[in-house]
Amino acid sequence: MSKNLASKAVSGLKWGSAATVANAVMQIGYTSAMARLLAPEAFGLVAISSVILRFGSYFANMGLTKALIQKEELEPQHIRAAFTASFLLGLLFTGITWLAAPLTARFFENPDVAPIVRVMALSFLVNGISITSLSLLEREMRFKAISIIEIISYVISYLGVGIVLAYLDFGVWSLIYATLLQATLTAVGTYAIVRHSVLLQFGWAPYKPLFSYGSRMSVISFLEFLSQEFGTILIGRVLGSYKLGLYNRAYMLVNLPMYMLTRTFTKVVFPSFSKIQNDIKKLGRIYLSSITLLAALVIPACLGISVAAPELVRIILGAQWGESVPVLQVLSLAIALSFITMFAGIVCDAKAVLNVKIVLNIVFILVISGLFYLLREYGLVGFAFAVLIGEMVRMAMYQRVMLSVLQLPYRQQLSIYLPGVINGLLVALGIYLVSTLLRGADAPVLLVFAAQILTGAVLLLALTLLFPHKLLRAELQMVLNKMGLNSNTDSTSGRLIHKYKSYILKEA
């Protein structure tokens, strides 16, 4: 990786991490407030409507976002073609969704779905206008600008308008209006920075390379959407909006922090991987390094959430959401695998190995469909176990793909999970012991939850930084170097960093 690319990647990680922390704190507060102001049915209705909107979004965008980032040489006519296609497809799908809204309400046997879907359909048009400028910012790795836009739009839309409208008894519409407002503010902010041409492109030549890659990416994204939202569709259809609301909030409680933890990595990784797509050895090294670091954080965090689920649900959502606790405990394990496996998918995207990825996702959908059917009698927990088993199968399939694409042996691929698994088990054990002690003493739930967070954080930091597994040692040094923390012994901080580097690199 060139110095310039590495510098941009590190800058992106720094700004993305800062934005992630800010968004995580804000979303926890927003979720807690809205869970107390709105009933589970409101979240269930939004979950159903969101599935419909996401269903259309993969065709409305046609993978042009990834195509703009992945293409090595990008000309002005390609940008105009991407904007033209995104704008017209967004307009088309806004109209189609508006007309089809009554059909979706009939499918879910809930008349309240139709008006919500119709209003949310406007997001197709807004996203169609903004997606080109956002993609160009990501391609140029201008994550500082993206982070600032995300934070400002979130504060105004959700913490400002969303909570106020919910307090004023707007019900489910407070969620809808907040979502549309954020999309609009993001569109305005990104275009204000990029200011690309908005002249429509009518010649076919610039479209061909974008749609060649983008159309396959659109199919893959749609298949991944089906695999992720199959449970939402079935629960909404079979068990109703109340049960779906319980499942959706449980899924959110673990998915949101993991998304916040990994979103910075994924945003930086795809353009970085794309720029070195033809260097198999370097790409393989960076892939293994990324998974090692990510697994060391994600697995302990998810196992900790699983143990602390009763208190987490009680504090964040409230006592009325107790039915979601066992669902959250199982989903915590499934989502850990999902986020780690995601990096193998990014490698396939960067190298344009898309046909194999299409087949893999079709197989995964068939597997998870069969599991949902077999475990349907166990209700929401059965659906959660189906997701967990399905993610284990997907991980195995992706390892076969990485053996072919990056020539990485199975043993090498499996070994990089070891630091995360060991740390995760120790963190979970520590939280379990503290929880058992405090629960047995009838300690207040806030005290138990605070002790769980403190125990998990201390153990994870100690295991990662003070007693790192040998596979983590070199990765930690690499992170310190890339962040500009060099061992300049002329200063006190430099001497401390030098001593720490020597410590983590010593023989186990």
UniProtKB/TrEMBL annotation:
<dbReference type="GO" id="GO:0005886">
    <property type="term" value="C:plasma membrane"/>
</dbReference>
<keyword id="KW-1133">Transmembrane helix</keyword>
<feature type="transmembrane region" description="Helical">
    <location>
        <begin position="81"/>
        <end position="101"/>
    </location>
</feature>
<keyword id="KW-1003">Cell membrane</keyword>
<feature type="transmembrane region" description="Helical">
    <location>
        <begin position="113"/>
        <end position="136"/>
    </location>
</feature>
<feature type="transmembrane region" description="Helical">
    <location>
        <begin position="414"/>
        <end position="434"/>
    </location>
</feature>
<protein>
    <submittedName>
        <fullName>Lipopolysaccharide biosynthesis protein</fullName>
    </submittedName>
</protein>
<dbReference type="InterPro" id="IPR050833">
    <property type="entry name" value="Poly_Biosynth_Transport"/>
</dbReference>
<feature type="transmembrane region" description="Helical">
    <location>
        <begin position="358"/>
        <end position="375"/>
    </location>
</feature>
<keyword id="KW-0472">Membrane</keyword>
<feature type="transmembrane region" description="Helical">
    <location>
        <begin position="174"/>
        <end position="194"/>
    </location>
</feature>
<keyword id="KW-0812">Transmembrane</keyword>
<feature type="transmembrane region" description="Helical">
    <location>
        <begin position="148"/>
        <end position="168"/>
    </location>
</feature>
<feature type="transmembrane region" description="Helical">
    <location>
        <begin position="286"/>
        <end position="307"/>
    </location>
</feature>
<comment type="similarity">
    <text>Belongs to the polysaccharide synthase family.</text>
</comment>
<feature type="transmembrane region" description="Helical">
    <location>
        <begin position="446"/>
        <end position="467"/>
    </location>
</feature>
<feature type="transmembrane region" description="Helical">
    <location>
        <begin position="381"/>
        <end position="402"/>
    </location>
</feature>
<feature type="transmembrane region" description="Helical">
    <location>
        <begin position="327"/>
        <end position="346"/>
    </location>
</feature>
<feature type="transmembrane region" description="Helical">
    <location>
        <begin position="42"/>
        <end position="60"/>
    </location>
</feature>
<dbReference type="Pfam" id="PF13440">
    <property type="entry name" value="Polysacc_synt_3"/>
</dbReference>
